[in-house]
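Regression test attached.
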Amino acid sequence: MLRTEEMLLNMGPQHPSTHGVLRLVIKIDGEIIREVDPVIGYLHRGTEKLAEDLTYTQIIPYTDRLDYVSAMTNNYAVVHATEKLMGLEIPERAEYLRMITMELNRVASHLVWVGTYLLDLGAMSPFLYCFQDRETILNLFNELCGARLTYNYMRVGGVKWDAPDGWLQKVEEFVLYMQKELATYHDLISGNDIFLQRTRGIGIYTKEQALSYALSGSNLRVTGVPWDLRQHQSYSLYHQFQFEIPIGEKGDVLDKYHLRMQEIAESLKIVKQVLGVIKEGPIMGKVPKVLRVPEGEFYTGVESPRGELGCHIVSNGKNKPWRLKFRRPSFYNLQILPDLLKGENISNLVAILGGIDIILGEVDG
Amino acid sequence: MSDQEKEQEKELTTETKAANVMSEETVEIKSASKEQDVQKPDALSQELKDEGSVKNESASEEQGIQKPDAPPSQEVTDEGSVKNDSVSTGVDVENTVTKPQAASVPPKKPAATPRPAAKKPVEEKPLEPSRKQPWLDKFVVKLKDLEGSEYLEDAFINRANSDLPTLVVKSEWWRYLALYLRNHPDCQFHYVQNFSSVDYETHLEVVVHLFSFPYKERLGVRVKVDRTEAKVDSVADIWAAANWNEREAYDLMGITFEGHPDLRRIMLTDQWVGHPLRKDYVPYDEGV
């Protein structure tokens, strides 16, 4: 029997598999992880403090930088909260455009996850496929609002730009293409023996743990809780459309992969339905020139690709928020990591960490 | 042991059983959430009366039967499509006026005593009572029976926030209340939706939004914390999610959570001076 001693291992903040600037201080005994202490804050920009000196419209570009992989949902979270507090009416076309962009962004975000996760596990080619398809979505967004990542597309009361001629046609073509393309992904990844061995049965947690850590999104649904804010606290016009909430069975990382692939399919389904009903019309509602939000407190959550993205606004009736707090799903989801890693082999570390799907811009706020 | 508790235990036993319960829950969530939106206030209050005695599943079945009768109202679209008005309008029921700390538990008042409307001149027509009002009234009666209920300062419906029932409590009571909300079979608020803190300049507030999966109820709790001596008991052992959130509130807002297992700064460096989210924060610069 080889005698081993406890050793401190530092991982990050500059490490390709931490997807940003996460630092993990790991106590290992041989190859077994005894304790993990995530150190975060390297990307803290004080968005919440900055927001107190900004008008509601000025806050929107800052939200792009929180979860930079799905900026559309971030835009929506703050815009939605403001609209609800002000009691604004949003034109139908604007809501549909928002839904199309949010769902496409969800697809793009999940594609990034699949690609980079497989890269973490050592598979190069899925990454190229994923980013190629994601590129199509980014090009669509580029055409719509002139940016590939930080869209700044939504406004309180509607959206900034109407869809250019032929854009909706292109979206439809993409949806049809992507629905077929999903089969390719399954051919490429789902049956791969190395992938299955690396992901099956690791990173499992129970439903009770998930609830206690307030996990949300696919991290919660993988334990079998069918909880999706798009359906259960319906916002925007999601109630008009049919879609399923995929849930997991075992709760391991393999389940998460299948769940996210199904979510891509569901998002495409939603986009397709929206394309069927969207009509010409105004894209901005009647909004006062200076946005003065009535005094009060408001919290609302929307379903971002990573989970419940919440916005807690305290307003004192001025044109700037008194306090703006984001419930950032990655921050909540990351908290369970030390629990998951305790007693694991160090080779599983990256596989489990990657499975959570964190975006450090969001973790650090 | 009540039905609720049995239900809870059943969920915890084995994986296979848990899976069954969950599949039931799927159905239940759907019907319940639809029902919630569609229902008229009267129907809901009627249903609330016998809510306590009925089991979860049977309750949802009942709702399913009732559904065709209730006409779909405007509120179907969204959680927040209710009219906007300020937090405490004249109609909100306030049966919990602030009481001096030392006073013993006062005799119970009837749950729904409308506050005199004279406080704020009501323009247009008076609002209808919120659909959540009966639930909150019932809930407050239960809270009044608890030890330390004199620390409950206010209980109202946040109309602007899609009728969110909200409690305002003093910091002394927070831990006790948290345990009650988390563990009591009538509450089961297992899920922290949001954990936030606000500097009101007169005092600080820890704001927690909770969600109860078995009952599909949301609840906002605002814990008032003294500004000069910002201390409140930690609830990190009650909800694991509160751990990092309390560290964040400590770091940025300067609230000390007593009993927290690992209260360190989380976003800023350990040498940082001050707490940036305080309204009177002045950046510390050594060079000046």
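Expected vs. actual: identical. Chain A touches chain B through 53 residues (CB under 8 Å).
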